[in-house]
Amino acid sequence: MNDRESQLARGITKQLDQGLGTIDPIVLARLRSAREIAVGAMQRRPALVLASDNGSGGRPGVLHYFNPRYILPLAALLIAVMGTVYWQQSQTDDATDIDANLLSGDLPIDAYLDKGLDSWLKRTSH
Fold first, then answer.
1. Residue 88 neighbours by CB distance under 10 Å
2. 65: which DSSP letter?
3. Which of 1, 19, 90, 114 has its CA 20 to 30 A from that of 96?
4. pTM listed for this prediction
5. Which residue ranges make up each domain of the chain?
6. 71-89 residue pLDDT tens
7. DSSP per residue, 18-78
């Protein structure tokens, strides 16, 4: 903090301290009581996260990983992988069904001897 910033901070502090003298003593007592109650409640509350956000190097707590910015991309990735597996499975089933129907069908022997069938099989198998 440079000299100008510290001078500004001292001026703000001075203004705030002077303002306290103009507050009604009853209101001031109620504010002090409410602050003490709030601070006491904060001290009794258990900590949910082991690490702080100030980069102190502590280990993050379990709740840190349940943040939506971690869960949503993971869910999207999982849905994409499941969709890809389903699509590939349906594609291989269709190709297998076509081959099975073609080979088990009642084709005359002349169809297997036809050069057009042989070129069609070579073209579709690649």
1. 10
2. G
3. 114
4. 0.31
5. 1-47, 63-126
6. 899 999 999 999 999 988 8
7. HHHTTS-HHHHHHHHHHHHHHHHHHHHSPPS-SS-TT---PPP-GGGGG-HHHHHHHHHHH
